[in-house]
């Protein structure tokens, strides 16, 4: 009888322990509709960088209602915030983005359908990012509370990832100084925890000011600011032949005049420059600015340069990425409903040469270490604190980022499922990190080795204040 009673007690204790260890997943399963509704609301708002007032407020209110202490307007950014729960260490940060992209709109349908009343859309799926990360943070809070595990979970509301470098200002302000580990994810057309670094980048607006005049009646009295822009672009395009192979340079003329018969006295061009190494970005940037100064001198115009943003490359941590890869494989991928399958099939027909097949959203892609040719302000977080991320299939397989197909999926349950899977992966990975000191120690040791003992942080955007008006 004593053995039977002991066995029943051990079974009961095991059942309680299992329930506690799955508290984060139980919360996510029970609150999927909240995650989906949050993602849809952010999709509807579609607010661009540093103008995400309603998006930021929604996430802050949700986290406050869940028991988090919220600090708003951090790093001199009105829409940036930090929400915290718990006490002491380890301190784990979950990053959340919520800005949309200007100039692209699409309804949440699988065929091209612009929304004429909108000037922006979630073509990078940051509505899913914000909703999924907030859900993950709340789920971790539920696990900490149910198990009595010491530690702090934080959600970082990080605005203006798309060209505004919101996280850089937050790093520069010291908001990650006491964080032990950081986590993030991003919507994609696939599920992967590959250890993928990114390109460092810097951007600026080059503003030329000249003298207006009648283009036919008094051309000799004019000095064309547009000529300054075009001369700069010509020289930079010639420069492309003489830069390291992995360099990326791209621009748009954001202002070029309004009437052909008026010599424009103001013109502006917006440049991005990228390379895998921050030091090379700095070196090439000197040549870019030299071309701008030469263009101004040659056209008799004046030049003003405003650095808009700058990001370091992501410093990968294989210890954490291998853990995340194993976590994703334990959870599994995404299975579409019949309705979602029909939506996906219609979207898929719009692709010329898709890189993935339908059905791959149910798979986890092979683990690898690679270079990605995008850039992100997560890079600056990753050199401040050991950081891990994942890509989750919030789009139909084969979808390119920054496309109308991405906007469409991000506003439907195809995207919402991705946000929920991301929340499960992040929260489960956080549970492992809180529970496994050896994992934490190994990740920290790798971080210190990769970053180097003589590292000193210097933001690529310099000491400028947040570019709060860069989308206006």
TrEMBL record:
<dbReference type="InterPro" id="IPR017439">
    <property type="entry name" value="Amidohydrolase"/>
</dbReference>
<feature type="domain" description="Peptidase M20 dimerisation">
    <location>
        <begin position="203"/>
        <end position="294"/>
    </location>
</feature>
<keyword id="KW-0732">Signal</keyword>
<dbReference type="Pfam" id="PF01546">
    <property type="entry name" value="Peptidase_M20"/>
</dbReference>
<protein>
    <submittedName>
        <fullName>Amidohydrolase</fullName>
    </submittedName>
</protein>
<dbReference type="InterPro" id="IPR017145">
    <property type="entry name" value="Aminobenzoyl-glu_utiliz_pB"/>
</dbReference>
<dbReference type="InterPro" id="IPR052030">
    <property type="entry name" value="Peptidase_M20/M20A_hydrolases"/>
</dbReference>
<dbReference type="Pfam" id="PF07687">
    <property type="entry name" value="M20_dimer"/>
</dbReference>
<feature type="signal peptide">
    <location>
        <begin position="1"/>
        <end position="19"/>
    </location>
</feature>
<keyword id="KW-0378">Hydrolase</keyword>
<dbReference type="InterPro" id="IPR002933">
    <property type="entry name" value="Peptidase_M20"/>
</dbReference>
<dbReference type="InterPro" id="IPR036264">
    <property type="entry name" value="Bact_exopeptidase_dim_dom"/>
</dbReference>
<dbReference type="InterPro" id="IPR011650">
    <property type="entry name" value="Peptidase_M20_dimer"/>
</dbReference>
